[in-house]
Write a structure and sequence with these properties.
- With 565 residues, the chain is of the alpha+beta class.
- It folds into four domains: 140 residues, no CATH class; 94 residues, Phosphorylase Kinase, domain 1 (2-Layer Sandwich), CATH 3.30.200.20; 187 residues, no CATH class; 55 residues.
- The protein is 56% helix and 9% strand.
- The chain contains 21 helices and 15 strands.
- Helix 14 crosses helix 15.
- The two termini are 39 Å apart.
């Protein structure tokens, strides 16, 4: 598992210091010097204080979200992946940052073949020339976590091999340490950043990227996806080669197709039926969400290939989403209410998918939702855009202080993406016509008598079991009562303030009694003129009065001081 260590003094961890210095230089470069100075980093650095005298740069004229994106791109793999993960989390960052982070692209150089060979040998035990009939030394693509090479197996099958970057785990762990340190400083020194909970963002990033750097998880997702569509001849998924795969190496079947975004520029564009492909792609995503509840969370054009027979091939299963059966049903009802323009039920449905700190203004929310309906629903069927409705709905939620649950945001994003791609292929696509059968199917499934009966079996069984246990429980209680072994425990709640007050009062009474005793005793000694004397006054009496004075000052100056237990 990835670990996030604490950073105290950076001078004692040289690798952290050099990377930290680089990160701060980039932050200053893109105009975040004011924030860096506010974080009081001079308390953490043992040297390198020249960083804090540099001037901010010309990039300050650009918007803050845009500069954040540029910073992540410049800082490399871990930060690029952080931005890509955050672009799916409206519960963690504002919507304007999400829109900018959606533009993030992996733009990292490939690593040399010698490193590729070392990773394969350490993971699979043999060199590529022993495992494959042929293995291309030059990668076909490079990303933040790894890169892809074409190859041919010993059985003559064309494959692609994903190889993880050497040392990427150590790089990410170092960056996580620094991210976490900066996040803690932000929460402690920047009030506006504390509201965004930067430490929670870093923790969520650590959990998410842990899944992406383990290729066995991606292989498992690909197999599950393939099983879901095994009866659908229009959808294909590359086959995984488990004997040539591991945590850092993933070998899968080569998809001999064309990227969906490059159909028009392919050598033979006339062999593709664009309307049919648009319809199949839309139905495939609808089926993933509404029927299986397990969907491709990043269906951008680079991850969708079209085969020569118009079949659709999904690639890259590193980021997947899931929605529960109940969430699918609630979402289907919400869409149905939107299409029927039932405002009250829409609000009830929306509130099931969000969480909030303060109760929303229901009148304002209803007014905003009515505006969305008026602008979109009363159009001809072919002009209704689900993506437009969902985008407006998400903005309305943000304006009203509501945050969408992460998995549901990913689901909406997948729907928006596939509709955008489908309309590029077929501008006349009627997305609602594709949506309605799935909405109807998921709703009817929940009304199925056999399903309802099956859901009732467990509660009924639990009830009868509990009824059967009641006589035995009563008998045990009566037996303990007869033998005098019945014990009843009471737990008092909210008595701590009263106990502290009583303790403070008893302390004051004790001090007062001691003080009174000292004063009376000292007075008697003085009146009795008991030796020894100082200037005709008994010394013991003077000491008693001094102690009495100290106790009196202590009670006056610290009346609420009590010993904490």
């Amino acid at each position: 598992m990835l670990t996030i260590r604490k950073i105290a003094k950076l001078g004692s961890a040289y690798r952290n210091f050099k990377r930290y210095e680089q990160i701060l230089q980039v932050l200053f470069k893109f105009g975040f010097g004011d924030m860096i100075r506010t974080l009081r980093l001079e308390n953490c650095f043992e040297f390198g204080m020249n960083l804090f005298t540099r001037k901010d740069s010309k990039f300050e004229t650009r918007s803050r979200p845009e500069r954040v994106r540029m910073i992540l791109e410049e800082l490399g793999p871990a930060f690029i992946k952080l931005g890509q993960i955050l672009s799916t989390r409206p519960d963690l960052i504002p919507l304007e940052y999400i829109q900018e982070l959606n533009k993030l692209q992996d733009n990292v150089p490939s690593f040399p073949y010698e490193d590729v060979e070392k990773v394969i040998v350490s993971e699979l035990g043999k060199t590529p020339d022993k495992l494959f009939m042929s293995f291309e030394r030059e990668p076909t693509a490079a990303a933040s976590i790894g890169q892809v090479h074409r190859a041919v197996t010993l059985d003559g099958e064309e494959v692609v091999v994903k190889v993880q970057r050497p040392g990427i785990r150590e790089i990410i762990e170092t960056d996580l340490e620094i991210m976490n340190h900066l996040a803690v400083l932000m929460e402690n020194n920047l009030e506006e950043m504390a509201l965004q909970r930067p430490t929670a963002i870093v923790e969520e990033f650590a959990r998410s990227i842990e899944k992406e750097i383990d290729y066995t998880i991606e292989a498992s997702s690909a197999r599950r996806f393939a099983m879901n569509f095994e009866s659908n001849p229009n959808i294909c998924v590359p086959r995984i080669f488990p004997e040539l795969s591991s945590e850092k190496v993933l070998t899968l079947e080569f998809a001999n197709g064309v990227k969906i975004s490059e159909l028009s520029s392919s050598p033979c564009p006339e062999q593709y039926d664009l309307k049919l492909i648009a319809a199949r792609g839309t139905d495939a995503v609808m089926e993933q969400i509404f029927i299986h509840g397990f969907f491709h969370a990043d269906p951008h054009p680079g991850n969708i290939f079209i085969m020569p027979d118009n079949r659709i091939c999904f690639l890259d299963f590193g980021m997947m989403g899931s929605v529960s059966s109940q969430e699918r049903h609630d979402f289907a009802r919400l869409l149905n209410n939107i299409l029927k323009a039932e405002e009250d039920r829409i609000i009830q449905g929306v509130l099931k998918f969000v969480y909030y700190e303060n109760e929303p203004d229901h009148d304002s929310l209803q007014r905003d939702i009515c505006d969305i309906i008026d602008q979109n629903i009363y159009r001809p069927m072919r002009e209704i855009q689900l993506a437009r409705i969902l985008e407006q709905l998400m903005k309305t939620l943000t304006v009203n202080g509501l945050r969408l649950k992460p998995n549901l945001y990913i689901m909406l994003k997948a729907l928006i993406t596939i509709e955008t791609i489908a309309r590029d292929l077929d501008p006349d696509l009627e997305i609602i016509a594709h949506l309605k059968p799935f909405v109807r199917k998921i709703r009817m499934r929940h009304l199925n008598p056999m399903r309802l009966m099956a859901k009732m079996i467990d509660p009924i069984e639990d009830m009868f079991r509990a009824l059967g246990d009641i006589p035995l429980s009563i008998e045990n209680i009566l037996e303990k009562t007869r033998k005098g072994n019945l014990k009843i425990e009471f737990e008092h709640m909210g008595l701590e303030p009263l106990l502290r007050t009583l303790e403070r009062i008893s302390d004051h009474i004790a001090y007062s009694i001691v003080l009174a005793s000292l004063i009376i005793g000292s007075s008697l000694i003085v009146l009795s003129k008991i030796p020894p004397h100082y200037k005709n006054v008994p010394v013991i009496g003077i000491i008693g009065f001094v102690i009495s004075g100290l106790i009196g000052f202590r009670i006056l100056l610290f009346p609420h001081h009590t010993k904490k237990k």
